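Hi there, hope your week has been kind to you so far. Do you reckon you could talk me through the fold, stretch by stretch? Thanks so much in advance, here it is.
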Amino acid sequence: MHRSRSSAAAALALAATALGGLAACGLFHTDSPASCPGDRTVVLASQRDVVAFQACLTARGIALRTGATVDVAPLHVTRITGDLVIGPTVGVESVSLSELTQVDGAIVVMGNGSLHGLFLPRLERVGRIAVEGNVSLASIAMPRLTEVTGGLTISDNHDLEVLDAPALVRVGGDLVLANHPQLTVVELGALRSAAAVRVEALPKLTAEVLDGLRAHASPP
């Protein structure tokens, strides 16, 4: 009996040593604080970067800058305490962050040559938004967004057709919507407050729609 127990203990020790060696070789993935850095902006330049960060729920900042085809949909981040910066990119066609609810800083989307869609289905609050100079961007969807504490600028996105933010009530800074020759659908019907409103060079929107945007916004 004593020899049997000793053999079993030895076998368990050997197995533990083997598993430790496999983990050290990277065959088993274990989360560690280093994989969710809280002291710096996480730069996503490849799909491998996304995989390394996908289990993290919060971030100080996220920057997507790449010439590769990268899909950020696997990310589970719910809050960014700093900024979310998308661009410049070349191979990214869609950005969808399905669990993101709050960005304390700014969302900046600029210089994305292949980006067609920006989808933030659960975003509720953000400090500032600037979406500018994305030549292929056709759709922006933020259906749960209720408040932008700073300014909201969407301009010079040549192919933009749809802006969907039906729950947005307040923009603390200026609301700028300009230079979109293809824009035909604007859902901002809940808007009640903005420091100022500038809507221009939107040839496919009727005067009624433009006047409605101005009427729904008034100084806070």
